Amino acid sequence: MTPNDQIQLALDVKRIRWSETMKNFEMTFSNATGRIDMMMPMEWEDQTVVSLGGAFAVNDAVTLRAGYNRGTNPIPSSTLNFLFLRP
């Protein structure tokens, strides 16, 4: 939305269906002596993310921008695994 030539506003709402893709994590380790199959339950929850943004053109050379993004944590603490944490 552009109320005038100097101001621009944006709103975005996303529904991320984690429950369809992050139900279980399966992995296999194998070497010359054998193979190990593992499965870890993930059970991530669906998430709604709301983003707001705005821009204000001070002049032709300078534009100020700000935004806000809000979403809940989709990972239940009961299935949180250190393998999926960023360092």
Automatic annotation (TrEMBL):
Q: Where would you say this protein principally sits, based on its record?
A: membrane
Question: PANTHER family annotated for this entry?
Answer: OUTER MEMBRANE PROTEIN NMB0088-RELATED
Q: Which domain of life is it from?
A: Bacteria
Transmembrane ranges, per UniProt, are none
Q: How does this chain sit within the bilayer?
A: Multi-pass membrane protein
- Give compartment(s): Cell outer membrane
UniProt keywords (A-Z) are: Cell outer membrane, Membrane, Signal, Transmembrane, Transmembrane beta strand
Protein name, UniProt field: Outer membrane protein transport protein
Checking Pfam families in the record gives:
Toluene_X
**Single GO molecular function:** long-chain fatty acid transporting porin activity
Tell me yes or no: is Transmembrane among this UniProt entry's keywords. Answer: yes
* Example of a GO cellular component annotation carried by this entry: cell outer membrane
Describe the family membership recorded for this protein in Swiss-Prot or TrEMBL: Belongs to the OmpP1/FadL family.
